[in-house]
Amino acid sequence: MSQGAPVPEHQQRQITDEQFHAATLIWKYHQMGHELRPCSAAIGLGSHDLGVATAAVDLFRAGLFPVVVFSGGNSPTTRARFPRGEAVHYREHALSLGVPAEAIIVESKAANTGQNITFSRELLAEARVEVQSLLLISKPYMERRSYATCRKLWPEAEVVCASEPLELDDYIKSIGDEKLVVDMLVGDLQRVIEYPKLGFAVEQDVPGDVYDAYERLLGAGFDSRLIST
Length: 229
Hints:
This protein has helices at 17-30, 51-61, 86-96, 113-126, 143-153, 168-175, 178-198, 208-219, and strands at residues 41-45, 68-71, 104-107, 133-137, 158-162. With 229 residues, the chain is α/β, with parallel strands linked by helices.
């Protein structure tokens, strides 16, 4: 499970039931629901969440890929947690859980999802890994955005998305900040909507109930992770 401070019982629900229901709709939308299958390679997308590396270890043990690129440098939100860089800490975590060093490639410069994909593709080519299919491993609420980004930047590859199998309640407990998690769900949905207009990703259909939930949460002030448009 993802690492994070435990949340005292009386602090676990600081938002209303209606807001939690709206957040759950968005949470489920972000997850692609792909059937997992063996792929040519995997990319573990860097973030604040060490659970991405844990999920990669589980998937490697299941025989779903022979090599993984852990991709990510540092950002204002991860520098304190991963001072040596996201990918470096992911690698160390995977090694500690028994993944052999030769199965891991470190990409330590990427500062966004587009760079995660682009730089990882370059390293896989340098390593002479022929990629026909790609397992993208991300935070649970980042599956759809990473999928849309990869389809734009690497359209030849068949993309399968994966993440830790967590429900929203469990993820909130692992992170330790309910408001922040909902802000991140809203922020990622805004990116799913806006990035195709900027040429960063392919377009994704957003069901009406999911869009309504997004607007309700925006109106309630869950907006700290929005981008300027």
